Amino acid sequence: MPAVKPPCKVLVSGANGYIAIWVVRALLEKGYSVRGTVRSEEKAAHLRQLFSSYGDKHEVVIVEDITKEGAFDEAVKGVDAIEHTASPFHMNADDPDELINPAVNGTVGILKSALKHGQSVKRIVVTSSGAAIQRDSPTPITVSELDWNEQCLEIVREKGRGAPAMMKYRASKTLAEKAAWEFWNQNKANVSWDLSVLNPPFVFGPAIHAVTTASSLNTSAMLFYNHVAHPNSSGATNEFLASTGTCWTDVRDLAGAHVLSLEKEAAGGERIIISAGNWKWQDFIDAANAISPPPKLATGGLPKGNPGAGTGHPSTVHLLYYETAKAARILGLKYRTITETTKDTLADYEAKGW
Ligand code: NAP
User: Fold this and answer.
1) Which pLDDT tens digit goes with each residue over 62-83?
2) Which residues pair with 73 in a beta bridge?
3) Quick check: is 211 in a domain?
4) How far is the CA of 219 from the centre of ligand 1 (A)?
5) Which of 19, 21, 199, 275 to mutate to test the pocket of ligand 1 (most atoms within 8 A of CB)?
6) Pocket mutation for ligand 1, best pick of 85, 134, 345 (most atoms within 8 Å of C-beta)
7) For 169, which of 94, 203, 218, 341 is 20 to 30 Å away at the CA?
8) Do the domain assignments include residue 236?
9) Which of 66, 89, 174 has the most ligand 1 atoms within 8 A of CB, as the residue to mutate?
10) φ and ψ at 321, to 5 degrees?
């Protein structure tokens, strides 16, 4: 399968989202042309303004409802590659299908459109999640690309609307990724493209999408703001801050991974974990307090928690580890550190007057 390289044209779905807009930027900076999809004209405005200097190398098209049959038929025409990131990530679903339906049908829909109208497409990258791999465990576990999150599927099957919000989201990502691989396996003989899937855990870092208030940040970035930029961590106890956390990656490193996954031939047919490592909220809080001069935030100051009580403290236990050798081998990815991401994220809040 030929690798994709600039000046190829890449379709990015959900281009106005927190992660996708960094993917658009990374692609444009590397010399690609980008066609982004958003749900309405209103959501196109910020993208058009932010990337206006790229002229006709950047375009935005409207795909109102990604679950509709043929929704991406026009958008896939003439592109060399696709980055499918559009999928809901929120904790407000009552019926799990509110998440599962757009996640699964959006993913299968874009693949179907590429099957029918994507004769020029060489590679499709789907933004899945660590949610499709990990499971909750009372004792530490290491998971790899060989693992599937069957646990969330069982819980959602059993409890339906009563399942925890995070389990509904994890189920949507697991089912969407399974559907993508199933579609690929059924149709690989009839398409010019191959499939690559990225599995990042929590994504943190600065925001360049259209957000005017911190309360309108996307789910992961809002959690970071609430715990790391509020003097009392939005009411979280010190014990919670020292004991709560999983794995993470910086949004800019993830955007870079999306570009590399198009370019590296060996990424075809692979799911790839993109994780910088483990965290506890206390780690980010300590990094925030080490910034000199301290960021001036409208929240009135930084939380302190219990300094040093996070990763590295003898009593700290991480329950989930990701095997990350595949990303290193195929993509050669380097990750930002907790210190770098925290510094840049707080500088972003300060610049935004938050
Ligand atoms: P985000 O800022 O909320 O962006 C989500 C994007 O998907 C937006 O463009 C959104 O469009 C679109 N979308 C959501 N629901 C939709 C629906 N029902 N129909 C059509 N479009 C819909 O979230 P994000 O954090 O960037 O997430 C992007 C992708 O990364 C998702 O696939 C998510 O599962 C995955 N991911 C995120 C994280 C993380 O920590 N952030 C970690 C792992 C994987 P609107 O703006 O119009 O709603």
Assistant:
1) 999 999 999 999 999 999 999 9
2) none
3) no
4) 9
5) 19
6) 85
7) 341
8) no
9) 89
10) -125, 140
Query: What's the rounded Cα separation, in Å, for the pair 75 and 60?
Result: 10
Residue 340 located in a structural domain = no
201 closest CA partner among 245, 157, 159: 245
Q: How many domains does the chain have?
A: 1
User: Which residues are bridge partners to 272 per DSSP?
Assistant: 198
Task: Write down the pLDDT at residue 1.
Answer: 54
173 is catalytic: yes
Give me the residue label for tokens 């089912």.
175
Structure tokens at 12: 């990015």
Radius of gyration of the chain (CA): 20
Residue 36: which domain range?
9-204+250-275+322-331
Q: Which residues line ligand 1 (CB under 6 A)?
A: 14, 16-20, 39, 43, 66, 85-89, 102, 127, 129, 173, 200, 202-203, 218, 220
- The predicted model scores a pTM of 0.98
Task: Ligand 1, residue 209: give the atom nearest the CA.
Answer: 2
- Report how far residue 303's alpha carbon sits from residue 240's, in angstroms, rounded to the nearest whole number: 13
Task: Report pLDDT digits (tens) over 145-193.
Answer: 999 999 999 999 999 999 999 999 999 999 999 999 999 999 999 999 9
Do 175 and 104 touch, CB atoms closer than 8 A?
yes
238 part of a folded domain:
no
Instruction: Please tell me the distance between residue 11's alpha carbon and the centre of ligand 1 in angstroms.
Output: 16
Closest atom of ligand 1 to CA, residue 173? 34
CATH of the domain at 105: 3.40.50.720
Token output for 259: 């570009």
